[in-house]
Design a protein that fits this description.
- The protein is α+β, with helices and mostly antiparallel strands.
- The protein has 3 helices and 7 strands, in the order ααββαβββββ.
- Strands 1, 2, 3, 4, 5, 6 and 7 form a 7-stranded mixed beta sheet that branches.
- The chain is globular, with a radius of gyration of 14 Å.
Length: 123
Protein backbone atom coordinates (compact mmCIF):
# COMPACT_ATOMS: atom_id res chain seq x y z
CA UNK A 1 0.00 0.00 0.00
CA UNK A 2 1.39 3.41 -1.01
CA UNK A 3 1.30 6.06 1.72
CA UNK A 4 -1.00 9.02 1.07
CA UNK A 5 0.41 12.54 1.06
CA UNK A 6 -1.32 13.21 4.39
CA UNK A 7 0.17 10.12 6.00
CA UNK A 8 3.64 11.08 4.75
CA UNK A 9 3.08 14.49 6.31
CA UNK A 10 2.18 12.83 9.60
CA UNK A 11 5.35 10.72 9.35
CA UNK A 12 7.48 13.83 8.79
CA UNK A 13 6.03 15.52 11.86
CA UNK A 14 6.40 12.39 14.01
CA UNK A 15 10.04 11.96 12.94
CA UNK A 16 10.90 15.59 13.71
CA UNK A 17 9.13 15.41 17.09
CA UNK A 18 10.99 12.18 17.93
CA UNK A 19 14.28 13.64 16.64
CA UNK A 20 14.55 10.51 14.47
CA UNK A 21 16.79 11.36 11.49
CA UNK A 22 16.44 7.95 9.82
CA UNK A 23 12.63 7.99 9.94
CA UNK A 24 12.70 11.52 8.53
CA UNK A 25 15.01 10.48 5.67
CA UNK A 26 12.59 7.70 4.68
CA UNK A 27 9.90 10.35 4.03
CA UNK A 28 11.93 11.87 1.18
CA UNK A 29 12.69 10.44 -2.25
CA UNK A 30 16.35 9.54 -2.89
CA UNK A 31 16.73 12.44 -5.35
CA UNK A 32 14.46 14.98 -3.64
CA UNK A 33 15.01 18.70 -3.99
CA UNK A 34 14.58 20.73 -0.81
CA UNK A 35 14.57 24.48 -0.29
CA UNK A 36 14.10 26.17 3.07
CA UNK A 37 13.75 29.85 3.85
CA UNK A 38 14.89 30.34 7.43
CA UNK A 39 15.71 33.62 9.21
CA UNK A 40 19.39 33.23 8.25
CA UNK A 41 18.55 32.85 4.57
CA UNK A 42 17.92 30.21 1.93
CA UNK A 43 19.10 26.63 2.40
CA UNK A 44 19.01 24.12 -0.45
CA UNK A 45 19.69 20.40 -0.45
CA UNK A 46 19.41 17.58 -2.95
CA UNK A 47 18.84 14.02 -1.82
CA UNK A 48 17.06 12.42 1.11
CA UNK A 49 20.08 12.19 3.40
CA UNK A 50 21.26 15.81 3.05
CA UNK A 51 17.65 16.97 3.52
CA UNK A 52 17.14 14.88 6.66
CA UNK A 53 20.54 15.98 7.99
CA UNK A 54 19.63 19.66 7.58
CA UNK A 55 16.25 19.40 9.29
CA UNK A 56 17.62 17.21 12.07
CA UNK A 57 20.49 19.63 12.68
CA UNK A 58 18.02 22.47 13.36
CA UNK A 59 16.75 20.59 16.42
CA UNK A 60 19.94 18.73 17.42
CA UNK A 61 20.72 20.89 20.46
CA UNK A 62 17.13 21.03 21.64
CA UNK A 63 16.07 19.53 24.92
CA UNK A 64 12.48 19.18 26.10
CA UNK A 65 11.24 19.17 22.49
CA UNK A 66 7.45 19.05 22.40
CA UNK A 67 5.07 19.05 19.48
CA UNK A 68 2.33 21.59 20.28
CA UNK A 69 0.22 21.22 17.16
CA UNK A 70 0.46 20.07 13.55
CA UNK A 71 -1.55 19.35 10.45
CA UNK A 72 -0.81 17.51 7.22
CA UNK A 73 -3.13 17.56 4.24
CA UNK A 74 -3.30 17.90 0.49
CA UNK A 75 -3.71 21.31 -1.10
CA UNK A 76 -4.73 20.52 -4.65
CA UNK A 77 -1.64 18.78 -6.06
CA UNK A 78 0.64 19.67 -3.12
CA UNK A 79 1.29 18.30 0.32
CA UNK A 80 1.02 20.92 3.05
CA UNK A 81 2.51 20.24 6.48
CA UNK A 82 2.68 22.69 9.35
CA UNK A 83 3.83 22.15 12.87
CA UNK A 84 4.54 24.18 15.98
CA UNK A 85 7.23 22.94 18.36
CA UNK A 86 8.58 24.14 21.69
CA UNK A 87 11.91 23.29 23.15
CA UNK A 88 14.87 24.53 25.10
CA UNK A 89 18.20 25.44 23.53
CA UNK A 90 21.10 26.94 25.47
CA UNK A 91 18.82 27.08 28.54
CA UNK A 92 16.37 29.33 26.64
CA UNK A 93 12.82 28.13 25.91
CA UNK A 94 11.63 28.75 22.36
CA UNK A 95 8.73 28.14 20.01
CA UNK A 96 9.08 27.56 16.26
CA UNK A 97 6.58 27.07 13.45
CA UNK A 98 7.38 25.65 10.03
CA UNK A 99 5.27 25.20 6.89
CA UNK A 100 6.27 22.77 4.16
CA UNK A 101 4.73 22.50 0.70
CA UNK A 102 5.81 19.50 -1.31
CA UNK A 103 5.19 17.17 -4.20
CA UNK A 104 4.72 13.50 -3.38
CA UNK A 105 5.66 10.88 -5.98
CA UNK A 106 5.76 7.13 -5.49
CA UNK A 107 5.02 7.46 -1.79
CA UNK A 108 7.81 9.93 -0.91
CA UNK A 109 8.39 13.69 -0.99
CA UNK A 110 10.12 14.44 -4.31
CA UNK A 111 10.44 18.20 -3.82
CA UNK A 112 9.64 20.56 -1.00
CA UNK A 113 9.78 24.19 0.04
CA UNK A 114 9.80 25.09 3.73
CA UNK A 115 9.25 28.40 5.50
CA UNK A 116 10.46 28.75 9.09
CA UNK A 117 9.51 31.35 11.72
CA UNK A 118 12.84 30.94 13.44
CA UNK A 119 13.27 29.92 17.06
CA UNK A 120 11.26 32.59 18.87
CA UNK A 121 11.75 33.25 22.60
CA UNK A 122 8.90 31.72 24.53
CA UNK A 123 7.22 34.02 27.02
Amino acid sequence: MTPTPGSIGDQVVAAIAAQDRDALARCFAPECRFRALIPDGLREREGRDPTADLITRWFADTTDLQLLDSHADELADRLHIWYRITGVENSEPYVVEQHLFGVVRDGAIASAQLLCSGFRPQR
